[in-house]
Amino acid sequence: MNSLHQHDQHDDLHLYNIRTDLAVEARELASEQGEAGALQGVKEESYEEDGIYITKIDVITEEGARAIGKLPGSYLTIEVPKLRNKDSKLQNRVATKFAQEFERFLTAVGITETAKVLLIGLGNWNVTPDALGPIVVENVMVTRHYFELMPEQVAPGYRQVSAIAPGVLGLTGIETSEIVQGIVEKSKPDLVIAVDSLASRALERVNTTIQIANTGINPGSGIGNKRKGITKDVLGVPVIAIGVPTVVFASTIVNNSIEMMINHFRQETKDTQKIMGMLDALEENERLTLVKEVLSPLGHDLVVTPKEIDEFIEDIANIIASGLNAALHGAIDSDNVAAYTH
């Protein structure tokens, strides 16, 4: 985590100082900020399957993209509030659902069963909240070397998969995007999958949410500001991004706490301004700006993660790795990935 998250200047939400990498939260924020008209260019569908909540957001027009601060493309969010309960059966169901949804993304970007795939585990393996990508790389099934060295011994139903955790600029001195570009030029994959840690505006979504997007990793996304993008335009091949929110900014937590206090007092009295003063009259974006102005000079606008992050990060990384194994290799039953969950 070599630097704090910074949003792309393209984002309209940047004007509100909102810190979220999730399309579902950006969509919620745009609605709260009165962007309903512009959201005509954003299509949303959501449903629930036995505790697993799925939200599909398609950003169709440039107007919709500006309204929610996300590039045109498809975003799918899997939210499982009970995922922190360490229920192995639930984890297996989530991995299965993830595999099924990821297969649809592969089909949508034209990836066949024999297409070669490169998995990039972004992040710093020395910093637990930023280690999602490297842990997924450790647990995914890599096969490219078998195809290169002993192709006659590879059973049907497997494809060429390679994987690498390139580290971060502070460790390597090289931009992550440049490392990935070099690998893509040499190994010539048909698809790049990038796994990264994200920031959320809601504590309840931390380590319980998975986002899949066909837009790749864009400048400023993820916990660390990676500057150069890992996108189809940069690499020349389709890029599917997988992200999990692992942190929330302290300013976001303080702002949400103030909002909860105001709502609590409103249950007791209509005149909450006597209690909360000017904070009661401020819009959310104005209040968040005020909180940041107070915390930032003191160095208190910290990146916050749950104290159980070590267990959480391992569990959700294994879910993603197991789901990827099932989605990428036809020999693995994508309807039941329990046997492939570490």
From TrEMBL:
Say if the entry is tagged with keyword Hydrolase.
yes
Subunit structure as annotated in this protein's UniProt entry: Homotetramer.
Modification after translation is described as:
Autoproteolytically processed. The inactive tetrameric zymogen termed p46 autoprocesses to a smaller form termed p41, which is active only during spore germination.
User: Pro-region residues?
Assistant: 1-21
Q: Which SUPFAM superfamilies match?
A: HybD-like (SSF53163)
UniProt-recorded name of the protein: Germination protease
Regions that span the bilayer:
none
Report the record's Gene Ontology biological process terms: proteolysis; spore germination
Q: Does the keyword Hydrolase apply?
A: yes
Recorded hits in InterPro entries, A to Z, give:
Pept_HybD-like_dom_sf (IPR023430), Peptidase_A25 (IPR005080)
On the tree of life, the source organism's domain of life is: Bacteria
EC main group: hydrolase
The UniProt entry, under Gene3D superfamilies, shows:
HybD-like (3.40.50.1450)
**Organism the protein comes from:** Paenibacillus swuensis
**What is one Pfam family matched by this protein?**
Peptidase_A25
Sorted keywords for this record are:
Hydrolase, Protease, Zymogen
Listed GO MF terms: metalloendopeptidase activity
HAMAP family, alphabetized: Germination_prot
Q: What chemistry does it catalyse, as a reaction equation?
A: Endopeptidase action with P4 Glu or Asp, P1 preferably Glu > Asp, P1' hydrophobic and P2' Ala
Q: What does this protein do?
A: Initiates the rapid degradation of small, acid-soluble proteins during spore germination.
